[in-house]
Amino acid sequence: MMATTTIDAQAGLPFIDISREFDAPRDLVFRAHTDPDLLVQWLGPEKYEMVIGEFEARDGGRWRYVHRDGDGTEYGFRGVFHGTPTPDLMVQTFEFDGAPGQVALDTLTLEERDGRTTARIHSVYQSVEARDAMIQSGMSEGMESGYARLDGLLARLVPVG
Amino acid sequence: MSDQLSAVFGALSDPTRRAILARLTEGDLTVAELAAPFAVSQPAISRHLKVLEAAGLISRRRRATARLSHLRAEPLRDATEWLARYQEFWDERHRRLDALLAALQADQQERDG
Q1: Has this prediction a pTM greater than 0.80?
Q2: Do residues B61 and B67 touch, judged by C-beta distance below 8 A?
Q3: Residue B70 at interface with chain A, using a CB cutoff of 8 Å
C-alpha cells in the first residue's frame, strides 16, 4: 500500500504535526535530510528548480535554498540548526524570505521499526494566524494541480477497512 | 483564516468525525445509526456531533424522538481545499524521497553484492 502523509493541524493551536513512514532504515532517511546533494533531489516542488546556497547540518549551522519557477521567480527559505542534528532529534528554524521575522521551529524525529522509518515533524509557529497562513498560502505557491473536490477528499480521508 | 475555518480544521482532525461526515454524504442519520459502526458510545458520538455542529459542518433536526444529523458541505470547501493542497505538497515531496531512498538502497545492494 502507498504510504500517506498524515497532517494534523488542531484548531486554536499554533502547531502542525506531519508524519510519514518510509521503506528504508533511519540512517538513510537521516542522510536524505542532512546531505545537501540528496536533499536537493526531493525537497523542492517537482516543477521548480531547487538551488541550495548553504547547508551546514551542525549546531549553529545555517541553511539556505531557493525554489525557482519556470518564469525565474525565486522563493527563498533559510534557517539555523539548533543542537547537533541526529536521527533522534533534528531541530531547525524555518523562515520564508518573503516574510522575514516570521519564524517556525521544526523538530524532526526518526523512529525505525522492522527496517521501516517513521519521520515525525512538529512545527511550532509564533501564532495560530501564522500557522494558518502557512497552510493557506506558503506551501501552495505554484501548486496548480487543481483543488480536490469534497467527495473525493472525504473518500480519501476515511480510513479503509 | 477565520475562526470558523479554524473550527473546521479542528473538527476534521479527528478520524471518527471524518468517518461521520463521510456517512452523512449518503443521507441524514440518527445518533444511534451513526454510533452503530463505531466502537464508541452514543454519548461519545453526540460529543463529536456537537463539535461538527459548532464548526458548521452539520445541522441537526428532530424527527419524532430522534435527532437527525445532516451534512452541510459548504463550509468544508475552503478548509478542505487548503488542507488538500498542503497535503498534495507533502505527498509529492515524500514520493520523491521514497524514490531517492529506493535508489540509494539499490546502489548499496549492488556494492555489497
Answers
A1: no
A2: yes
A3: no
